[in-house]
Design brief:
It is built from 5 helices and 8 strands, in the order βααβββαβαββαβ. With about 190 residues, the chain is of the alpha+beta class. An 8-stranded mixed beta sheet has the order 1-2-3-4-5-7-6-8, sandwiched between helices. A hairpin with a 6-residue loop joins strand 3 and strand 4. The longest helix is centred in the first third of the chain and has 15 residues.
Length: about 190
């Protein structure tokens, strides 16, 4: 699998063509926010290809001095879902980040607080099958409850370290006063 770090134009094209289809409007950052994070060096939108064709995309929040990255958006093209492309993509992401990141954090909506609990459990099962582990952390971000999973890349970190890193990643993405009261993590 080939991974390409997208420039602003390429990222905007995927945002417009793919992400508006793959994510509910309420979950999708405006591209202007993505562009701002990219220009600050805090965001890495990646496209994953097999045999020259787009298979999936994965957009991460990163900090230069942090050994943890946060998977912000991940989707496999609809026609390739359920055929192993997602698992291959996550394994390729872990290899891609291994030289400079120890862990890729993944947030999954908590099944107890979503309209379709079966879909949430399916998504969690997918990440676990791909090699992620459940952490002792949960979060509530702008009212949405998440369970936190960790995909090892270049090593493993304790939940306490992952929580510290997750808070730092969110502080880079969400400025005060929006962070306070809207971004809360438990456990770890």
């Amino acid at each position: 699998m080939q991974i390409q770090l997208l420039n602003e134009t390429q990222a905007e094209t995927i945002h417009r063509r793919q992400m508006t289809r793959d994510f509910p409007e309420a979950e999708l950052k405006p591209f202007s926010a993505v562009r701002g994070l990219m220009r600050r060096g805090l965001y890495e939108p990646l496209a994953l290809y097999e045999e020259g064709s787009l298979v999936s995309y994965a957009w991460q929040t990163v900090l230069p001095d942090c050994a943890t990255a946060l998977l912000d958006y991940f989707a496999v093209l609809p026609e390739l879902r359920g055929k192993g492309a997602g698992t291959r993509s996550l394994h390729a992401l872990a290899e891609y980040y291994a030289p400079r990141k120890r862990t890729l954090l993944i947030e999954c909506e908590h099944p107890a607080e979503v309209p379709d609990p079966a879909e949430a459990r399916r998504r969690i099962g997918f990440y676990l099958h791909a090699g992620a582990r459940a952490t002792a952390m949960e979060g509530r971000v702008f009212g949405v409850r998440y369970q936190i999973y960790a995909l090892p890349c270049g090593g493993a970190e304790s939940d306490a370290v992952l929580r510290r890193d997750l808070e730092a990643l969110y502080r880079a993405m969400v400025s005060d006063p929006y962070y306070r009261g809207n971004v809360i993590f438990y456990g770890g």
